[in-house]
């Protein structure tokens, strides 16, 4: 496992971090979840939870503590504002590191939804997520995916590789994905 230094405190973290909120919430059995988590632990992957950055820093400063050193926003080719605009001042002011989630835009950047159908084993097929996968949302994202395809083709890489950044959250839903 390769590690990087995170934030001003210089904490050493794995380049990959493991996100479980979506993965385990009504999506898989306990045994599968344990197997996947054990695989990540065995390979030196860190686990992170979210924090309310500004509020947490305010509390930390009042109590003379170290504030948060990492934020876990959604970030991909389609969802960039929070990282690139909204949080920029937090990164500059606090030296905040990032460990993002959904770098493949819920699988849209893998081609999983190119047929326009929601696969039965995908997160969008879950009861909790069905409301997110509206026809207009799927069509809109597929239009964007199709617009990026020529760029990936020109570079000679799959669209999923074009989309990946240096630090991602792995949210495996099957042991075969680990």
UniProtKB/TrEMBL annotation:
GO terms for molecular function: oxidoreductase activity. Keywords: NADP, Oxidoreductase. Transmembrane segments: none annotated. It holds the Pfam family Aldo_ket_red. Residues 41-164 form the NADP-dependent oxidoreductase domain. InterPro entries: K_chnl_volt-dep_bsu_KCNAB-rel (IPR005399), NAD(P)_OxRdtase_dom_sf (IPR036812), NADP_OxRdtase_dom (IPR023210). It comes from the Eukaryota. The keyword rRNA-binding does not apply. Gene3D superfamilies: NADP-dependent oxidoreductase domain. Belongs to the shaker potassium channel beta subunit family. This is NADP-dependent oxidoreductase domain-containing protein.
């Amino acid at each position: 496992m390769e590690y990087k230094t995170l934030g001003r405190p210089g904490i050493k973290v794995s380049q990959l971090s493991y996100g479980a909120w979506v993965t385990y919430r009504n999506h898989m059995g306990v045994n599968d979840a344990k197997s996947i988590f054990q695989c990540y632990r065995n390979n030196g992957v860190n686990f992170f939870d979210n924090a309310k950055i500004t509020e947490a820093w305010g509390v930390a400063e009042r109590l003379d503590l170290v504030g948060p050193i990492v934020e876990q926003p959604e970030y991909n080719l389609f969802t960039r504002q929070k990282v690139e605009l909204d949080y920029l001042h937090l990164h500059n002011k606090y030296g905040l590191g990032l460990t993002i989630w959904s770098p493949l835009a819920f699988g849209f950047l893998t081609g999983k939804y190119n047929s326009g159908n929601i696969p039965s084993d995908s997160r969008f097929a879950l009861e909790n997520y069905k409301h997110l996968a509206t026809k207009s949302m799927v069509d809109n994202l597929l239009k964007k995916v199709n617009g990026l395809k020529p760029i990936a083709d020109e570079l000679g890489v799959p669209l999923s590789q074009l989309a990946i950044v240096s630090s991602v959250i792995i949210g495996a839903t099957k042991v075969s994905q680990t």
